[in-house]
Amino acid sequence: MALNESATNVFSEIRSYMNAEQDIREEIRSVVRDLEQHGREMLAVMQMVHQPDGLKDTSAITTKARGMFEEVKKYFVLISDKLPENQYYRFHDHWRFIMQRLSFLAAFIVFLESESMIGCEDCAQMMGVKTKREEGFHIDLDDYLMGLLQLASELSRFSVNAVTAGDYNRPVKIAKFLGDLDSGFRLLNLKNDSLRKRFDALKYDLKKVEEVVYDVTIRKLASTTITPAPSGE
């Protein structure tokens, strides 16, 4: 049975809308693919700190990686330009993963530079985006927090490699940092399931680092010790 003219017009409009949205998604995916490739290149640079030679020259590595964030800013401008107004979360899934990875990389750089935790504002600034929804293209708070939790796993690995390279005090500093991070996350009432699961892994990352600290301490290799962070439910 043929559709009447009114129904035909309705579905023609729907088809046009769906086709237009699909075109937008394809354009965004194209930019995100390039951004993800750039992110992999940045990760490869940062992975050099796990090598004995890289551990001795973290300053050069972080300087190079920080410079690569200039290209990141250009990619996010391209994505932002393709977004319809006030439609950020309609398309957010396309860049969620890479934004989390970039948040992690930014946090890793700042830790290596100053042994401190990057704030959301500074993280957004490195990527060239905003922090508030009403300001336009921004970093979602959950993506920033996920980046910090990814950093915890990376630092757990880093502490082991630091000892292998003869840097026995580094795990002590990492354990203190992760203890503070763990305490901070315990203040939050996390609603995001992925965040909660990732946070559950933080206590294991911290425990692993504390075991490294204990090992170097009883062997009198580290010059300082830490008090293990209290465990919680």
Describe this structure in words.
The protein has 2 domains: 139 residues, Translin, domain 1 (Methane Monooxygenase Hydroxylase, Chain G, domain 1), CATH 1.20.58; 80 residues, Up-down Bundle (Methane Monooxygenase Hydroxylase, Chain G, domain 1). The chain is elongated. The protein has 9 helices and no strands. The C terminus is likely disordered. The chain has 233 residues and is an all-alpha fold.
Which overall shape is indicated by the principal axes computed on the Cα atoms? Answer: elongated
What is the name of the CATH topology of the largest domain? Answer: Methane Monooxygenase Hydroxylase, Chain G, domain 1
Superfamily (CATH H level) name of the largest domain:
Translin, domain 1
Largest sheet data: none
Number of separate domains: 2
Helix count, DSSP H or I runs of 4 or more residues: 9
What is the residue-averaged pLDDT?
Answer: 91
- What is the second-level CATH architecture of the largest domain? Up-down Bundle
- Cα(first) to Cα(last) distance is 63 Å
Question: Which structural category do the helix and sheet elements fall into?
Answer: mainly alpha
The percent range for helix content is over 70%
Beta-strand proportion: under 5%
Order of H and E elements:
HHHHHHHHH
Ranges with pLDDT <50 over ≥5 residues? 227-233
Which value, in Å, is the CA radius of gyration?
A: 22 Å
